[in-house]
Amino acid sequence: MTTALTADVAIVGGGIIGLATAERLTAHGASVVLIDDTGATGGATSASGGLVRAFEPTGAHAAWAAEGCARYQRRGWHGTWPELREHGSLTLLDRDSLVRAGAALETAHAAGHETVVLDPGEIARTFPGLAVPEHLLGVLEPRAGWLPVTAVARAVLRDAGSTLRLLTARATALLTRPLSRIRGVRTTSGPVYADAVLLAAGAGSEPLAASVGVRLPMRTRAVGYCLFRCEDAASLANLPTVVDGTTGAWLRRWDTDGVVLAGVSSTRTGVPATVRRTVPAAEEQRVRSVVRHRCPQLSGARAVGGVAAYDALTPDGPAAVTSWPHPRGLVTAVGWNGGGFKLAPAVGRHAADELLKAVAR
Ligand SMILES: Cc1cc2nc3c(=O)[nH]c(=O)nc-3n(C[C@H](O)[C@H](O)[C@H](O)COP(=O)(O)OP(=O)(O)OC[C@H]3O[C@@H](n4cnc5c(N)ncnc54)[C@H](O)[C@@H]3O)c2cc1C
Fold first, then answer.
1. FAD dependent oxidoreductase domain: which residues (predicted)?
2. Any atom of ligand 1 within 6 Å of the Cβ of 225
3. Mean pLDDT over all residues of the chain?
4. Which residue, by CA, sits nearest to atom 38 of ligand 1?
5. What is the DSSP letter of 163?
6. Does pTM surpass 0.90?
7. Which residues contact 156 (CB under 8 A, 6 or more apart)?
């Protein structure tokens, strides 16, 4: 049997973006139904490495990265989220890229984040497990690091309280009323009527937007990581999170001593929207062959697991929160392309503001 639900806002997608938005909406007194076919956090969020930093050298969403990092440092809006593992975040760049990233660095400073530029000698002295060639520089953020993503998502859900209702169902189309105004979402468990709708369903947002004539091209991109167990755990004891803008490598300490999580960005798109807890041998080889140049211990380290997953990207441009004029009341928050976790508190705040405006109109 199907039943109709009613709320101020319906959200499709219970990943970190949908959850962070739902929490902000309920904090402002709005009722929310969150629709997700996996229950919640079954998509890219369930696989996320959880790296958080304020400095976003590409400049895309630099202000949201700084805001997101500050919110994670404060353990959310009520001090209830897990504590940020402040192992430090080191972003490696060549000298020209660092010059071009001046505005992004300024954005991080303006938001109160400490950053220190280190040369390769200083990096080697501070982090003996790392090897950085002469032509690179590192931007160290001592108070950045990583978070256990699923525990954060659970905490956000708890903060949202009982005015958030979870509906485990597949959204199949959006509903509109006359005069191009959103009416809600059709789902496999019945309709959800709402004055505003957020699509935060990654690539699953595209057909839903198309059902009301909104063009929102999306693609999946492969994102994954391997876990490596190192013989000499002591030399990795102070390893920071590392993001290497020159090779696409990224790594951090795992929860267990001597284990390192490491990935390398991939250009493979159109991959299935699935999360697998195993890594094919060829992918392990690809990751190892790159990350060993920054963390030499990983060349001989035993692979002990990992994740092969995906994130959604918008081929027409960067990720965005968009409030659509037609139908009125539709907001989309998509295209995070491997970097949405660190932005989520800021994206959720901004998307909630847009939805509250839509409800009030
Ligand atoms: C391996 C990996 C490592 C990463 N590491 C980092 C990192 O270190 N730092 C960082 O900042 N970011 C990282 N990211 C990126 C970050 O995790 C994602 O950008 C973020 O989780 C995206 O969240 P989301 O809410 O937009 O999407 P998702 O988490 O994918 O959530 C979308 C949800 O929508 C649901 N859905 C889709 N279609 C429908 C439908 N029709 N009906 C109902 N439900 C639907 C899906 O089931 C899913 O649960 C990583 C991603 C991966 C995969």
1. 8-353
2. yes
3. 96
4. 204
5. G
6. yes
7. 16, 19, 20, 22, 23, 76, 81
